[in-house]
Structure formats: C-alpha cells, structure tokens
Amino acid sequence: MDSFEINKLIGGLLGTVFVVFSVGIISDALFASPAPEKPGYAIEATEEPAEGGPAAPAAEAKPIADLLANANVESGAAVFKKCQACHTGEKGGPNKVGPDLWDIIDRPIAEHAGFAYSAGMKEFSKGGAEKWTYDNLDHFLLSPKKFIKGTAMGFAGLPKDEDRANVIAYLRTLSDSPKPLPTAGASAAAPAEGAAPAKPAEGEAPAAPAAPAAPAPAPAQ
Ligand code: HEC
Questions:
Q1: Alpha-carbon distance 57 to 43, whole Å?
Q2: What is the maximum span of the chain, computed from C-alpha positions, in angstroms?
Q3: Closest Cα to atom 6, ligand 1: which residue?
Q4: What are the CA-CA distances from residue 38 to residues 32, 42, 69, 79, 182 (Å)?
Q5: Which of 64, 84, 86, 118 best tests ligand 1's pocket when mutated (most atoms within 8 Å of CB)?
Q6: Which range has the worst mean pLDDT, 58-62, 128-132, 151-155, 213-217?
C-alpha cells in the first residue's frame, strides 16, 4: 500500500465523515421548529361533557340575560386568561392573534382598527351593522365556528353556561362606561315565581303545559 493509496483511504474516510455531518446539519435545518411567532395556541379540544348529563340539553336554552344575573366578574377574569393567549383587554391595547377586546359589548362586529378579520366574520358583521350584543357574544363563545362560519378564532368555545356568563360579565367591565345588563327573566316567565301551574286560566289553556321547558337550574356537574 503506497502513500497514495493511504491518502485515498483517508480521503474516503474524511469524505464519509463530511457527508454524515452535512446530512446532520441539513436535516437539523430542515426539521428545526422555530419558536412560534404567535404565542397563541389553538385550543381545539372540545370539552363536551362526555357523560350525557341531564344538564347538557337545558344548557343551551338558558338566556344569557338570566345567566348574567348570577354571573361573577372575578371568575370571569379567570376565564379570560384563556382568551389572553390571543386577546388583550386594555383600552388601546394591541391586537394580538385576535383583536383587542376593550369595550366589546355593543361594539360593531369585525370593526376594530388595525385588525385583519376573516372573510367569515366580516360577512357576519354586515359592514358593522351587527354588534356584539350579549346574545351574540353568548352564542359565539359557546361555539365560535358554529356561530360564525369561517371565523379565524381557533378556540373551541366555552360549553359551560357559567363560564360564558362570567367571562361576558367580565368583558362588560372592560369599558369606561359599562353597558347596562340585559333584564333577566324577560324571555322566560320565571318558573319559580309563577307557582300557579294548575290555575285554569281561561283562554290561555294551551300555553300552560309548555312551562316545564325550563326546569330548576340543574346542579353544576
Ligand atoms: C387561539 C386564539 C384565540 C383565543 C384563545 C380566543 N380568541 Fe377571540 N379571536 C381570535 C381571532 C383570531 C379573532 C378574529 C376572528 C376572525 O377574524 O374571524 C377573534 C375574535 C374575537 C371576537 C370578535 C372581536 C371583534 O372585534 O369583532 C371576540 C368578541 C372574541 N374573539 C372573544 C374571545 C373570548 C371572550 C375568548 C376567550 C373565552 C377568545 N376570544 C379566545 C382568536 C382567539
């Protein structure tokens, strides 16, 4: 084996090492996961109450006005932590993944300055004619993608009545002059008070049996 052959051998070895290293470096570069630009994360997991508890069906039916009557702003602030992955709530706060939510109650939908809304939300807003009423917020937060088709809000929703009511009550406080709360009991004649089920109200007979639609508040799960 002369020195030329030894050179070839060593050259080959070095070549191999070189290739192996380059592959390593290249694959590192290819598969590197850069820190996400947006600090948010899409919370897509649905929190459906797996056990078809009796609370579930009644839940959707409760009007937000009634729920708000018992809402707790402090608990709402805790729920809002979930939103803060994508939203600020301060006056003049920056838009993040989602728009700033200061003074959101009765704010025209998809009209916050400097935010690029999805086509779905812009369409829903009808050029700002639609507002974030308590009802709209309630339905949107229950299931954003069901309520506004094509929304870019990657959030699964708040299936629990109290969570929605609390966070909406909290959002209401993010304002210089909080909007008045809706009047509770307007839509459903409070079943507890009426306590005259068997009263033969002449003329209104057919309406009476409809009452059981809203049973007493189901115990929290
Ligand atoms: C993963 C990020 C993310 C989370 C978490 C999130 N949002 Fe959003 N939100 C968005 C995006 C993005 C939009 C804009 C949607 C569009 O353009 O379709 C949006 C829009 C909204 C709007 C409409 C604002 C406007 O100006 O019309 C409201 C209200 C809202 N979010 C409330 C909430 C609340 C309350 C929570 C917490 C319970 C929440 N969001 C959680 C990303 C998020």
A1: 23
A2: 119
A3: 83
A4: 17, 11, 36, 21, 36
A5: 86
A6: 213-217
Measured CA distances, 99 to 90, 116, 122, 186 (Å): 11, 9, 13, 32
- As a whole number, mean pLDDT of residues 15-32 equals 81
Convert the pLDDT of each residue in 101-152 to its tens digit.
999 999 999 999 999 999 999 999 999 999 999 999 999 999 999 999 999 9
Give the pLDDT confidence score for residue 84 in this predicted structure.
98
pLDDT for the residue numbered 22 = 83
Q: How far apart are CA 179 and CA 9, in angstroms?
A: 83
Report all structural domains of the chain as residue ranges with CATH numbers, in order of start. Answer: 73-173 (1.10.760.10)
Ligand 1 pocket: which residues have CB below 6 Å? 40, 42-43, 82-83, 85-87, 97-99, 101, 104, 109-110, 112, 117-118, 120-121, 132, 141, 151-155, 158, 167
**Kindly report the CA angle at 203 between 199 and 206, in degrees rounded to 5?**
75
User: Which of 44, 73, 87, 132 to mutate to test ligand 1, by most ligand atoms within 8 A of the CB atom?
Assistant: 87
Q: Which of 153, 168, 170, 179 to mutate to test the pocket of ligand 1 (most atoms within 8 A of CB)?
A: 153
| Residue that wins the pLDDT comparison between 144 and 198 | 144
What percentage of the chain has pLDDT greater than the value 90? Answer: 54
CB-based contacts of 148: which residues, under 8 Å, 6+ apart?
120, 121, 124, 140
